[in-house]
Structure formats: structure tokens, C-alpha cells
Amino acid sequence: MRLSKILTASPASRSQQSGFTLVEILIALALITLLAVGISLSFDGSRSRAEALISNMSELGAANVRLKNDMGCYVSHPVGLETATGAGSYNYCGITGTPTTWNGPYVGAFATDTTQTLVELDKVAQGVTIDFSQPTGVSGPYGTGGTNYAVFADKVPNDIVTQALQECNGNSNVGTNFSGAKCDGTLGTGTGTFTLMYDQTR
């Protein structure tokens, strides 16, 4: 075909040779966007709440470490991070009354449950409470012959427990007892527990 014939081809014949129209491309992009948003909402719902859970628990653990540097021991309930009287009532030092070495508050004000000793974390899920767990003996690769200190969350929806374990340990295995893992969890009927270790002493 001569060049003159190509140049003088009618607009109709040139449009038949073209690919997708602008309208078709825009429709495809809109469908892809809707699909991506739907997938991200279903995925990020539990992921963002799991990240919020880990963040709040890590903050409480770090605050208890700061308190220990002042008082010489950990408090056994989060209320001890917020008030000196709470620290005097709930600690592992045998201190009673108001500790003179308490230099808090070590955390910002938080919502508490009906006992006024636990953190209530409704932004993760309704009814979730956070406490410090009883110290447990150390086992596994993190060492032996010492003590684990951990933050404990109760009534956590199972999907958030699974996602939090994935975010913390890189897998969703439950029942690790901190053997090679910083976090542990249990699954129950609808809700479970999630535990994050913040210190280990020998």
C-alpha cells in the first residue's frame, strides 16, 4: 500500500484500527478501583485493629519498664501506671501506700473497666480489656531460668488474635508460650486472648 493511500484513509477506517476507547478504559479503571477498595476494607479491618491492639499493649509494657526503673519492680495492673495510689496497691515490690519513687503518670489517661484497674480498649472491639499477666517462667530460645513479663488482652475477636499474631510473630501459631515468639494467643468461641511479652528477666 502506498503512503499516499495510508495518509488519505478515512477517519472511520483509522478508528477501526485503534485499541480501547477512553470510555472503556475509564470503566475498567473504576471496576478495578472498586474491587481493590472492597478487598482492602475486608483485609484492613482486622489488620488495623490488630495493629492498634499491639501498639497499645506495647505502650503499656514500655511504660511499666519505665516505672520499674523508678520503683524497682513492676506494677501488676495498668492503673499503677496512671496513679501513685494504684502503684502502691498493685505491685510486685511489697510496697503499700503511696510509693515515694513513683514519678508518673507513665501513660496518658485511659478508659477502665468496672474494676477500675484494667484498660478497656473498645476501639479494637467491644469488651476488650488489657491487664498485665502474672509473671511466668522463661522457656525456649528466649532463655531459661528467668521470668516473662507480659501484657494480656482478653475477649479479643478471633480474627484479630490471628492477625495480631501474624503481625507480631510473622505467623498465626497459637500456644507458643513465648518459645521463639514475642506474642502468644488462644482462640475461643468467637473471642480469644492475645499476650505480648515486654520484658524478660533472669
Brief synopsis:
The chain is an alpha+beta fold and 202 residues long.
Distance between the termini: 87 Å
Query: What is the percent of helical residues?
Result: 40-55%
Helix and strand string, N-terminal first? HHHHHEEEEHEE
Number of helices: 6
What is the average of the pLDDT values? Answer: 82
Shape: elongated
Largest sheet: 6 strands, antiparallel
* Class from secondary-structure proportions: alpha+beta
Overall strand count: 6
Any idea what the radius of gyration is? 28 Å
Strand content: 15-25%
Q: Unreliable segments (pLDDT under 50, ≥5 consecutive)?
A: none
Number of domains: 1
Describe the overall structure.
There is one protein chain. This protein is α+β, with helices and mostly antiparallel strands. The chain has one domain. Helices cover 42% and strands 17% of the residues. It has six helices and six strands, in the order αααααββββαββ. β1 and β2 form a beta hairpin. α3 (22-71) packs across α6 (158-169). The longest helix is centred in the N-terminal third of the chain and has 50 residues, at 22-71. The termini are far apart. The relative contact order is 0.13.
